[in-house]
From TrEMBL:
Belongs to the prokaryotic/mitochondrial release factor family. This is Peptide chain release factor 2. InterPro entries: PCRF, Pep_chain_release_fac_I, Pep_chain_release_fac_I_sf, PrfB. GO terms for cellular component: cytoplasm. Peptide chain release factor 2 directs the termination of translation in response to the peptide chain termination codons UGA and UAA. It is found in: Cytoplasm. Methylated by PrmC. Methylation increases the termination efficiency of RF2. The gene is prfB. Keywords: Cytoplasm, Methylation, Protein biosynthesis. It comes from the Bacteria. It comes from Bacteroides muris. Pfam families: PCRF, RF-1. Residues 239-255 form the Prokaryotic-type class I peptide chain release factors domain. GO terms for molecular function: translation release factor activity, codon specific. SUPFAM superfamilies: Release factor.
């Protein structure tokens, strides 16, 4: 059974969250922001109105999240007192504590996501590395892992583009993941993921190493201004692939957007290539491709800001974007993150989307680095 010290700890952490989150201040802010939604002509500008409603909802979620933690912490105290009077069992006290500590830790973690982009939806792109079928199979396993993660966390996941492998797996895919703080939680997945296993595609049964890269960018909405120069854009159309149907391979609904990007800080130029086959409607695919371009340009600005901040805070641990971040060693039953040293032997669980331990370890080590 829990100790009096554990009970004291959970009460202190609950009180600390009340201070850190400024719950009383947020309650006043919600009232003020709600008043704005009652102004005449509020819905005349729909985009601005939707942004305002999102702001109100975000504040309310912090308050309700804290209220849940406070209720669960109070229930632990109650169960602890009832146990002294032999009204509840040890198991019931421990169960109340387990629920409360999980809620406290979840809110403490969310409290670390304070950057502007953290609360946004995100775009997650997976590219298979060199190695043909083996790497393409690994890329498809990662896609499945992230789709499962999204599903278990109540996020909406939409595959915006998918190119299947020659024999198995995928060459590349782009997934849009929508939900509260999707980018904040998934931004630490950015980098190279390494698989070591006995390959089913190798006749000699040799141990093979495969790589796939994951790129995570915030999905910006219309309330954030991103400068796109039309003169640098060009479009192609192509026939979307797919599993049969009368429309398949007959209508050029797929779009390919090329953007000649010039870095405003270094002057370096590169071509950004975006393909979208999300729908059978070419105008919608164009709109989706433009939204992805805006997200990528916003992310480049974000990365520049992070690099500048890193120069200022040279003493702090550097996060290498695009470096090898995690190894999945199947026959040793081990998945290890090289940045945080967090590891688990539950390989099957990880591949089924249970990556919360890695996400938590990353945020605890790096999310507060700008504080």
């Amino acid at each position: 059974m829990i100790t009096a010290e554990q009970l004291k700890d959970i009460k202190e952490r609950t009180e600390a969250l009340n201070r850190y989150l400024d719950i009383e201040g947020k309650k006043i802010q919600v009232e003020e922001e709600q008043l704005r939604t009652q102004a005449p002509g509020f819905w005349d500008n729909q985009k601005a109105a939707e942004a305002q409603m999102k702001k109100v909802k975000g504040l309310q979620q912090w308050i309700s999240g804290y209220n849940e933690v406070k209720t669960l912490a109070d229930e632990v105290q109650l169960a602890f007192d009832f146990y002294k009077d032999e009204l509840v069992t040890e198991e019931e006290v421990d169960d109340a504590y387990a629920k409360a500590i999980a809620a406290v830790e979840a809110l403490e973690l969310k409290n670390m996501l304070r950057e502007e982009a953290d609360q946004m939806d995100c775009v997650l792109k997976i590219n298979s590395g060199a190695g043909g079928t083996e790497s393409q199979d690994w890329a498809s396993m990662l896609m499945r892992m992230y789709l499962h993660y999204a599903e278990t966390h109540g996020y909406k996941a939409t595959i915006a583009n998918l190119q299947e492998g020659d024999e198995a797996g995928i060459k590349t895919c782009t997934i849009e993941i929508s939900g509260d703080y999707a980018y904040g939680y998934l931004k630490g997945e950015n980098g190279v993921h390494r698989l070591v296993r006995v390959s089913p595609y190798n006749a000699q049964g040799k141990r093979m190493t495969s790589f796939a890269s994951v790129f995570v960018t915030p999905l910006v909405d219309d309330t954030i201004e991103v400068n796109i120069e039309p003169a640098r854009m060009s479009w192609d159309t192509f026939r979307s692939g797919g599993a049969g149907g009368q429309n398949v391979n007959k209508v050029e609904s797929g779009v390919r957007l090329r953007y000649q990007y010039k870095d405003p800080y270094t002057g370096e130029e590169e071509e950004i290539l975006i393909e979208n086959t999300e729908t059978r409607d070419q105008p919608k695919n164009r709109e989706n491709a433009l939204r992805l371009l805006r997200s990528m340009l916003y992310d480049k600005e974000l990365q520049h800001r992070m690099a500048e901040q890193a120069k200022v805070e040279a003493g702090k641990k550097k996060i290498e974007w695009g470096s090898q971040i995690r190894s999945y060693v199947f026959d040793d039953r081990r998945v290890k993150d090289h940045r945080t040293n967090f590891q688990t032997s539950d390989v099957n669980g990880v591949m089924d989307g249970k990556i919360d331990g890695f996400i938590k370890a990353y945020l605890m080590e790096f999310a507060g680095s700008g504080e």
